[in-house]
Design a protein that fits this description.
This protein is an all-alpha fold. Helices cover 76% and strands 1% of the residues. A two-stranded antiparallel sheet has the order 1-2. Helix 8 crosses helix 11. The chain is globular and about 60 Å long.
């Protein structure tokens, strides 16, 4: 099978009306409800969220570890050497472009904001069960170790399991571009139909809600940076302008397709990340970072299993940090996995695990050593001033304050604003591409792109929802809704993991049946 990435959209592509319209209508209804009774919506969602975390934390935690173990077994199994799409398949991307697109699809802006904000919480308010003095060197080690736990191997295992399973069923078994295809190795063609459509709708809604919440936060952060940099009060017009620029950019990028749009923006994003890291290393307390990083790695390795399962920390802390993180990653994983799986053709299963799990985890570790390590060190040296700023003003302005503390003038702050902008765009255009394909009939390896109108519709919807919520200060409701999507999505990823295990032990053929 030789796949040409430049093939045109098939004229047979048509809108999958239930998958397109149902999540769109539910999303709009949720927005209206959030605008009308915002407090009540957030309260209800918080109650549901707490119930899920209280009763299903062991399942989230155990599944996360199981995903890592499964990927190790797959890499060591005969399946690890299989070429996805067959030995004659042509890769869509070079390895470097593949890694760039994969990394930028999965991290969005989270690593920028929470890479600086999250370690301050762990440094200044560690779990009481550990008996660590807040702000101490022991707390600094705990904070660094926790950043490795939340931002390296485990979250990327979630994406990798689902993405690898989809790649194998999509290219080798020639199943439809649908989340229901993940279950075919388990239950056969019964996976498709009404139940499969319901799965697509649910996961699409969770992803769109998550993207809208992320875009809303990004608009606020960019507006704050621009207003601070130029000393202006842009207000609502500035926020609308930023949202329009972001949406326009990622819609155009998604419309240009993988090679001309998404891949090029991802490469630019990688270089912006590298520039940010280089500045922080040069301007920050670089001498302390290796020691803090090594201490964090040692603690991460020593406590990985008990801390992942919440055995050595307070249960409330474990639920509100680790499990809440897993639920958020899992909510995005099913639809994102469709895009990641699409990139895999022509490469081996082991290469997929390398590019989707190990390399992003190494990047995450390097980022946390530099950004989180610098934040921790400066906060300790200043007597907790960064943490005070975080608790009083939230995580968004903290990043600008950190770079200002490092001596970053206008050029550096402009670099940071550019990195935030491109980071969201590169993640959004990948997900818009997957969302659009999921809501279109006739998507296949030979005709992988959805019609431009569908891409534009989803992009504009995300932008409008985010901007309306920002204007009405109702973003918490839609953000919580996206996280709640992690609960049903967990069972989808568990099903994908079971399918991958079935394929790894050879109980299901990896090639499409002869009559299909």
């Amino acid at each position: 099978m030789r796949l040409d990435p430049h093939l045109p959209v098939s004229p047979k592509n048509s809108l999958n009306r239930p998958v397109f319209f149902v999540p769109l209508m539910v999303l709009l209804a949720t927005v209206m409800l959030s605008l009308w009774r915002g407090e009540a919506v957030v309260t209800a969602e918080t109650v549901i969220n707490n119930w899920i975390l209280r009763h299903f934390s062991p399942l989230f935690a155990g599944a996360a570890i199981a995903f890592l173990a499964l990927l190790l077994l797959v890499a060591l199994s005969p399946l690890g050497g299989r070429i996805i799409g067959g030995t004659m398949a042509t890769p869509l991307l070079t390895r470097w472009r593949w890694f760039a697109v994969t990394l930028c699809t999965t991290i969005a802006t989270g690593i920028l904001f929470w890479g600086a904000a999250e370690p301050l919480f762990h440094l200044n308010d560690p779990p009481a069960m550990l008996g660590i003095e807040p702000g101490s060197d022991a707390a600094a080690t705990f904070a660094m170790s926790t950043m490795f736990l939340h931002w390296t191997l485990t979250p990327y295992a979630i994406y990798t399991v689902a993405g690898l399973t989809f790649a194998l069923v999509y290219y080798d078994r020639r199943e439809p571009f649908s989340l229901s295809s993940l279950f075919v190795p388990l239950v056969g063609q019964r996976a498709h139909g009404a139940a499969g459509t319901a799965v697509d709708i649910l996961c699409l809604f969770a992803l769109v809600a998550g993207m809208a919440a992320s875009l809303g936060a990004g608009v606020l952060a960019l507006a704050g940076g621009i207003e601070g940099l130029w000393g202006i009060a842009g207000g609502a017009p500035l926020r609308w302008g930023i949202a329009a620029a972001i949406v326009g950019t990622f819609v155009v990028s998604a419309a240009l397709g993988l090679q001309r749009g998404i891949a090029r923006l991802s490469l630019l994003n990688i270089w912006l990340f590298a520039a940010v890291l280089l500045f922080v290393v040069v301007a920050g307390p670089a001498a302390r970072l290796p020691g803090l990083g090594l201490a964090g790695v040692a603690d991460y390795v020593a406590t990985f299993a008990p801390r992942s399962l919440g055995l050595d920390v307070d249960s409330d802390w474990h639920r509100q940090w680790t499990i809440f993180n897993w639920a958020n990653w899992i909510a995005w994983a099913p639809v994102t996995a469709l895009f990641l799986g699409r990139l895999a053709v022509g490469y081996s299963v082991r290469a997929f695990i390398l590019v989707n799990l190990l390399l992003p985890a190494l990047f995450g570790a390097a980022w946390m050593i530099v950004i989180a390590g610098t934040t921790i060190t400066l906060d300790q040296q200043s007597g907790g001033s960064l943490y005070a700023a975080l608790t009083s003003a939230g995580p968004d302005p903290l990043l600008y304050r950190l770079f200002s503390a490092l001596g970053g003038g206008v050029p550096v702050l402009m670099l940071l604003i550019g990195a935030i902008f491109i980071s969201y765009v590169t993640a959004a255009d990948s997900n818009v591409s997957a969302m659009s394909a999921l809501s279109t009939h006739g998507i296949s390896p030979e005709t992988p792109e959805a019609p431009l109108a569908v891409k534009a519709a989803w992009g504009i919807t995300v932008g409008l929802v985010a901007t309306i919520l920002v204007a009405a200060a109702g973003i918490d409701g839609i953000r919580m809704m996206s996280v709640l999507g992690g609960f049903p999505a967990l069972f989808i990823i568990l099903g994908a993991a079971a399918s991958l295990a079935v394929m790894a032990i050879g109980r299901q053929p990896l090639t499409a049946p002869a009559d299909r």
